Fold each of these.
Amino acid sequence: MKLYEKLVSDIEQLVEKGVLLPGERIPSVRQTSQQHKLSITTVLRAYVKLEGMGVIESRPQSGYFVRPRTSDAQNAGLCMQASHPSPVPAEVHVSRLVLSTLRSIGLHDAIPLGSPYPDPSLFPWERINQYAGAVARRNRVWNMTDDLPPGNPQLIREIARRYMENGLAVDPDEIIVTVGATEAINLCLQAVAKPGDTIAVESPTFYAMLMAVERLGMKVVEVSTDPYDGISIEALADIMAQQPIAAVMVMPNFQNPLGFQMSDQRKRALVQLLEQHDVPAIENGVYNELYYGDAHPSSLKSYDRKGMVLHCSSFSKSLSSAQRVGWALAGRYRGKVEELKFLNTLATSSFPQLAIAEYLQNDGYEQHLRRTRKAYAQQARIMAAAVQRFFPAGTKISHPQGGYVLWVELPGDIDSMQLYRRALECKITVGPGRMFSVSQAYKHCIRLNYSYPWSVGVEQAIILLGKLITEFL
């Protein structure tokens, strides 16, 4: 038996005997090399073999972890399978459903488990408002031309600096400030595709992506997506070989609603595939700052060498949702996106841009983010444990690596819209799965928001949801 095979066998036995538990981190490559007196190459070969066998999984910037086995994970409510959507393009009609469910969030003082927005109490509202007031006092007369695209130079410099701090060199001239990430996504999609075109998306996918497609009169084809690894590059390649795809819209980091983080290897492979077919990617990176690991995740933009990735983001999920400040890094489509920005909304107000720019320059943004990440990571574990405890047997949940939403697959033939309406009567909101697809594939799923501090009210809401689900069964 070769050395790496012996190590594979030893680790496999430790997992089988329960010495290493599902979800538990295993020693790093360097630690194992030192402990077993093996070369790093030998250990890496063993870990790659174990990963291929499904015994362990790598998490970017975090190391290797024991992967939940299907039987164990199903019993514990941990394991989900990759989706298998139809490869046939379809029209999109989700906006009416999304609007009605979002309106319900603020009604009747409901527990906002269905909210797509983070808990605003974690945002530094007071400091940002102070900067906004100072900006207004300094600029008693405002020239409209100061608001024109691409945006305020001070904010653009701070955005570029933030990317640099996270390991990505960004040309400030590429940045176009928008009214939130939603406008950035809409502008980028409009720049690369036309009505009637087909756009490839993850399945399930964030409904804001679907709404952008619906707004522009395009179609979507949903691509098989693994709840741990992200969009299937193999399935996407098959689809692209069979039909014309105008663009691909993805969330590689902490996807809403599944919460996964694609590995660097798969991100690189995705960009390479798209470059081969000359198909642009619209990357939604609004949750990139909300990671639970030790280091900031890479983006598709990190591997873009031909300007094919249009990266969109905002401060709405990490700093302040009130100001609605986002941006796009539009690559080779930069000129077109800037023109569309001017035609669509003319400009983004400079007051919120300057307020955020001064906060980034003078206050502890990173310290704020560390507090937020720690809170979300802790609340993610509590929410997952509560769902496993109070929801009926057969419930499966996602394993988010960042962000603040949990995807729940309910047992049986439960219609999440009926659950949504019944829960709303009890002053609880949930995100029904039908919002995240053009098909009925996720009608038995719901999305839960865990950004709000765990409280008696939230716990009672989870307990009551579990009882309602059991009644439906």
Note: The chain has a mean pLDDT of 91.
Amino acid sequence: MLVQRLGAPSDFDPLLERVRDARIVMIGEATHGSYDYYRLREQLTRRLIAEQGFDFVAVEGDWPDCDRVNCSVVGAAGGLADPQTALERFERWPTWMWANAEVARFCRWLRAWNLERPEGERAGFHGLDVYSLWESMQAIFDYLGEEDPASLEAAQEAYRCFEPYGKRVEEYGTASRFVSARCEEEVVRLLARTREQATADGPDRFSAWQNAEVVAGAERYYRAMIGGGPESWNVRDTHMADTLDRLLDRYGPDARGIVWAHNTHVGDARATEMAADGMLNIGQLARERQGRDAVALVGFGSYRGNVVAAPRWGSPAEVMVVPPARDGSVERRLHELMPERAVLVFGGPDEPEWVTGAADHRAIGVVYDPTFESWGNYVPTRLAERYDAFIWCDEATALHPLPALTTPGEMETYPAGV
């Protein structure tokens, strides 16, 4: 194991050497609301793009919202001149995950970097997630209305199937348990038409196909969510892994991608109790599909600090105090052993027992109650097996949300919240 004190972007050199041959680098976060994680992840990502030629960033966000950001950062026709304006249009709660000053700064840098390069060499920004059923449906209508009006019927049939449930599609999931309410056949027909369209080149055709994949994934997700258990989690992470694969194919045989998501998605589930509970995640799937040497998984953690989160589902975000990590946890050990900021690169025969053995590892979602620290908010983890590297911030501060539009909380990500 190698330990490098972090004080400047150049201190990421040992980690950059470790990931030099990786096709995918996944960079996690222990919360969705810590400035330090976002800022350090931005610094690492800039170097991966500028120095190692990575082709895109794919985040734990909705495809349609992130597609507006992508059009801005690549300078596409009709794209917004300022990526922050696109981020401020994120409406789904919790908006602060991506509509924040830290992501805006990165996206402004990415646009400036891209505009100095030919169109075919520009790095994209994409969403991996599965929740945007209605937004993706609308995007398909907009595309087919201009490009292929003859295919509108398939989209309208799918829309009509979901329409009785309004935008509370969890009611669709409930109904599908008791009556023949499934929209699966209509969604499959829609997916087949948009896949056929996507065989021709063009970013708009690919985006329409991806939106159809979101609709199909969302239909499966909402049915699975009502049943409880690990299935809805697995549907979601499998959809994210499939989307990542499509992006790699889209960008070409030598494409390389960066993923931004919570540690619970990035860190290999097989090195945690998630596996015993029947859960998988995108980090595990990428290793299985691409081969371990082609994938680098980077986690984050801190001992204490402040975080932006919400006390209840759908409620306004607030800055909360994160108490010191509990005894015996990964974070308590790192607090005792590491400098204030450091990067740990795992590998080699001399790994200490405290990174190969199991210990509690803190995970804070968009809903957080610090009083649960004594019995919740931790995932037993074998650190050096779950990640290839780990970025440590002894004390993390709260990020800075943008004044984005907000809709009332919905069930879409409940109860996982990560």
Note: Residues 406-415 have pLDDT under 50 and may be disordered.
Amino acid sequence: MAPITVGAVAAHFGRDVDRAVAKAIGIIEAAARDGVDLLVFPDASLGGYIGDLNAPDTAELPSALDADGPEIAAVIAAAGAMTVCVGYAEASDGLTYNSAICVSGDGVHGSHRKVHQPAGEALAYAAGDSFRAFDSPVGRMGMLIDYDKTFPEAARTIALDGAHIIAALSAWPASVTDRASRLPADRQSRLFDLYDAARAAENQVVLVSSNQTGVMGSLRFLGQAKVVGPGGEILATTRSKGGLATVTLDVEAEITRARRVLDHLGERRSETYVLDPVPVVEQ
């Protein structure tokens, strides 16, 4: 494939769904003028995130939206030739999921429901149960939602399913137990960047990491949207401020170069990654 321009969004999205949709459309239109081919919004862009990870107020949860509802339809209409990943609270069969959907003007290409839940989130959302890659106008890709990227198996599963791009959509806050005076010095800030680089490098894929900014309830979000190359190098970043991190690259060429000598996926020794049963000692 030819080189593509990739963009990762760092921005604040609140509870007002109509305002969030309008803001997303404005960002899509601006990105289109800049020639962006893949645009990744944060988790919970359409309606905001919960305001407390320990005890979320179940009376003040984000509005749950239908995947085939007017809000997603508006994003599809705005996307045109661009591939857009956006996070929202998804209503399905009486449950609410923390979800992401990947669309273009041609319709929906893929979706993901967050699997791994930090403390308290299970009070607000049901958990997803799978990781899958899918085909899109920019190539085969997959999605993770914030805490998912803490677990190497999640990104590895998507990479083994053929994804060359992983979109990691986040509403990732600063530490709630050990607050730092400056966001760059925060423990969660360091982990956020570490996981982005590690998941890209260990799978030798391009990782596009978005994140919320600003404050929601007791949570202060980190920003730090970025594009990471298959060697773990940060190619573009917003740092802790809002903005759009963009880079133009030939994804296939970058991955081919990264895997030319050391091919991490091809050189796995799966049979060695199993713990032997613990022997039972009879008393």
Note: The helical segments are 17-33, 70-79, 152-160, 187-203, 251-258.
Amino acid sequence: MHTAPATPKAVRRQHDREIVSLAVPAFGALVAEPLFLMVDSAIVGHLGTPQLAGLAIASALLSTAVSVFVFLAYATTAAVARRVGAGDLKAAIRQGIDGIWLALLLGAAVVALTLPTASWLVDLFGASDTAAPYATTYLRISILGIPAMLVVLAATGVLRGLQDTRTPLYVAIGGFAANGALNLGLVYGAGLGIAGSAWGTVIAQFGMAAAYLLVVVRGARRHGASLRPDAAGIRASAQAGAPLLIRTLSLRAVLMIATAVAARLGDADVAAHQIILSLWSLMAFALDAIAIAGQAIIGRYLGADDATGARQVCRRMVQWGVVSGIALGALLILARPLFVPLFTGDPAVQDALFPALLVVALSQPISGVVFVLDGVLMGAGDGPYLAWAMLLTLAVFAPVALLVPALGGGLTALWGAMTLMMLVRMATLWFRERSGRWLVTGATR
């Protein structure tokens, strides 16, 4: 008896279920991360303005360090998912363990480099004489948590590759709750001030890392995977992550250039730019959740030698990206009268904000396609192409953005340049997707 082939509608429903089951918990975990900083800011803010300024500087340095190493999650997700698709769970977990060892090595290197240079880094950021001691104190303590944070990134990649985004959500919620309780207890209960906030965050980070390692170790024992460091495996993880590091650094350069240009436009424009960047980042979390689902699902399909399935689910995720982008753009416009007064009451800032927000809203469907295709190509292990594409995008964006103040443009023109940047990214990613060169099947790329 032959089973009837699945109808296109049934295939779409299957893809939708897969996407939702991975993307929704991933979104929750992504949103939990910036809440750490919000809690720290709220607690430290009551100590005084110099302490809050110090926290802001140290946090900027720490978040930059962590974001640079986000490839630990991306590369591990793709590599583990391929082996899951190939039906080799032992090799999948072993691949993930190599990524975790790489995270520990990189974390130790960051600590060794940052501890003796903490005060110099704070001065480099232009901290005031009153804020600098607090920033240095917070940075020196918090940097001790970097190895744990990098382990969290790599272990998150392992679980995503295993098609599990629920565990990272639960760990993120637990970490957020522990961070808040520890900060309150150490800052006010123990009277440690800003040092207490730093120690509370470090303890919460190591708790999260321990929770992840417990899950990974259990999986390794269940499937007979070795926990020992393997030089060849660690080296392979680093090689897979290197192109994604270049991609991430190029993207960070785009955001830094945009902020530097906004600073030249005047106080009202840079204030409005900061508000828009916060909103843009929040919407990026929603779109990135679909991209994370893409990394895990595409890797699994390609590992199972199902190029047709990978292409089908890619197209469905692009549709999700477009629809999500339209919805987010519409929400941004409709809710504008509600949230803008929460950010600022300055008429000059609001005047700069409104037209630029319209540009951002209209560009969200483009962002939806970009995030999804970015995730798809990461899931396919197509890191070298992503690196070159992002370098090209940076080369196009930088001169256009730098011309904005020279030509008398304002914030709206700057965000027009940001939209051009996203269009270039979309063009490069769409070209790659259409070429089919990313459809490399097998347990390894």
Note: The chain has 16 helices and no strands.
